[in-house]
């Protein structure tokens, strides 16, 4: 609410914002309301429009909103009559309909969130990959997510052959996805500390359901790797609660230590 107008102008035009477009509009509307109080005029829709100026309004991507979200925009009275008519017609028409008003129809390029189950990384030795015990962890969450990447620990400049399988715990026959490939460790910059690791990406991301326990099993073939310690059984990130648990069988990785350093995800 306290940022200067040039900062707001730059912000709404960014192509990489992890925010729903309707939430961005609501924040801009609140900013305009505060400016009205600061400058003196009554905070009506037309007054807010003058305060926001065209550059800010045109930076908001109304066409990418859901129709029910756009309905909440209409009551604010910030859009002109022509813009309102154009957008209502757009939402009521078939996909790919042209739009007279010059609002961007392309969704922003959302960067994934990154959640770690280790508050800090301690390396007092090397993690041996056993052929007898797999690296496994059970993961669940209280909101639907789109899983983009599973990140594993590696060791500097070494290659690993990995088979990653994701299953629904309640029904082992339900395989969500499987990845098998060779991966070369790279330098990973983390909020915790930097370490050698590699990413197993899912393109497109996997839609995982809330309140479902998923088993992540990694069969890793390669030299000893780094590992994490002090793992947490519960982590909150971006409004999502992540719950980590041990599988029913004896494995190498567990909640407290081992593999599965980070998970990258987006929200709908």
From TrEMBL:
Pfam families: PHR (PF08005). Residues 116-265 form the PHR domain. This is PHR domain-containing protein. It comes from Porites evermanni. The lineage of its organism: Eukaryota, Metazoa, Cnidaria, Anthozoa, Hexacorallia.
């Amino acid at each position: 609410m306290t940022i200067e107008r040039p900062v707001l102008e730059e912000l709404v035009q960014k192509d990489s914002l992890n925010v729903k477009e309707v939430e961005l509009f609501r924040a801009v509307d609140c900013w305009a309301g505060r400016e009205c109080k600061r400058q003196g005029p009554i905070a009506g829709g037309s007054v807010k429009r003058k305060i926001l100026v065209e550059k800010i309004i045109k930076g908001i991507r109304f066409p990418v909103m859901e129709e029910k979200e756009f309905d909440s925009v209409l009551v604010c009275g910030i859009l002109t009559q022509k813009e309102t008519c154009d957008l209502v017609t757009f939402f009521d028409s078939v996909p790919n309909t042209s739009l007279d008003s010059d609002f961007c129809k392309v969704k922003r390029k959302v960067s994934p969130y990154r959640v770690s189950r280790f508050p800090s990384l301690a390396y007092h030795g090397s993690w041996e990959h056993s052929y007898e015990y797999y690296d496994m962890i059970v993961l669940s969450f209280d909101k639907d997510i789109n899983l983009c990447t599973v990140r594993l620990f590696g060791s500097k400049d070494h290659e690993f052959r990995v088979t990653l399988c994701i299953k629904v715990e309640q029904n082992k026959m339900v395989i969500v996805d499987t990845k098998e490939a060779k991966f070369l460790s790279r330098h990973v910059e983390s909020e915790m500390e930097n370490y050698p690791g590699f990413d197993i990406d899912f393109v497109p991301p996997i839609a995982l359901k809330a309140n479902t326990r998923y088993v992540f099993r990694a069969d890793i073939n390669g030299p000893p790797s780094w590992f994490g310690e002090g793992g947490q059984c519960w982590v909150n990130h971006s409004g999502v609660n992540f719950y980590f648990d041990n599988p029913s069988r004896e494995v190498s990785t567990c909640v407290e230590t081992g593999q599965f350093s980070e998970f990258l995800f987006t929200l709908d």
